[in-house]
Amino acid sequence: MSVFEGKLSGKGLKIAIVASKFNRLITDRLIEGAKNVLKQLEVSDDDVDLYLVPGAFEIPPITESVLKKLKYDAVICLGTLIRGETPHFDYIATHVSKAILDLSVKYSKPIVFGIITANTVDEAIDRAGVKMGNKGSEAALVAVEMANLNKQIGG
Fold first, then answer.
1. pLDDT number for residue 132
2. Which of 43, 67, 80, 83 could form a disulfide with 89 if both were Cys (CB 3.0 to 4.6 A apart)?
3. pLDDT tens for residues 101-125?
């Protein structure tokens, strides 16, 4: 039996980060976490591009534009959604996650969902590196591993 597994080596990989500016205090921590891990995995600073969008809803269309026009091995999508008193949170979280998945399948590229969906600001802060790890760091690890696996299978 052949076993295929992506390596955690970023040498030669080109990575895009698409991040929401909404809830910027938290999302900036995710961006820093992702950048730190990419550097640790030896992704060159010149091979990482950051695209900032107003909110989470704008992440999928810019991700598609980036994939259509530029060559990236993976895209990391980062943002923070915090539940409010209306169903808006549910609509945004559902549709953004579905759109990201659809783009990943359409382009046969790893597009990593690093968007925090939290019930409270404290929960979101915890997931951005205070208590529960940093979801941006985790997303960067997944992006590198999946980009390498995708290359192994000819993607």
1. 73
2. 83
3. 999 999 999 999 999 999 999 999 9
Question: Is this model's pTM higher than 0.90 or not?
Answer: yes
Options 11, 21, 88, 98, the catalytic residue:
88
Class of domain 15-150: alpha beta
- The residues, ordered by sequence, that sit 6+ positions from 144 with a Cβ below 8 Å of its Cβ are 6, 7, 8, 9, 10, 13, 15, 37, 38, 41, 43, 74
| Annotation marks residue 95 as catalytic | no
**Cα 111 from Cα 127, distance rounded (Å):** 20
pLDDT of 133: 86
Q: Where are the domains of the chain?
A: 15-150
Terminal-residue alpha carbon distance, the chain: 21
List the beta bridge partners of residue 19.
52, 78
Cα separation, 122 vs 67, whole angstroms: 34
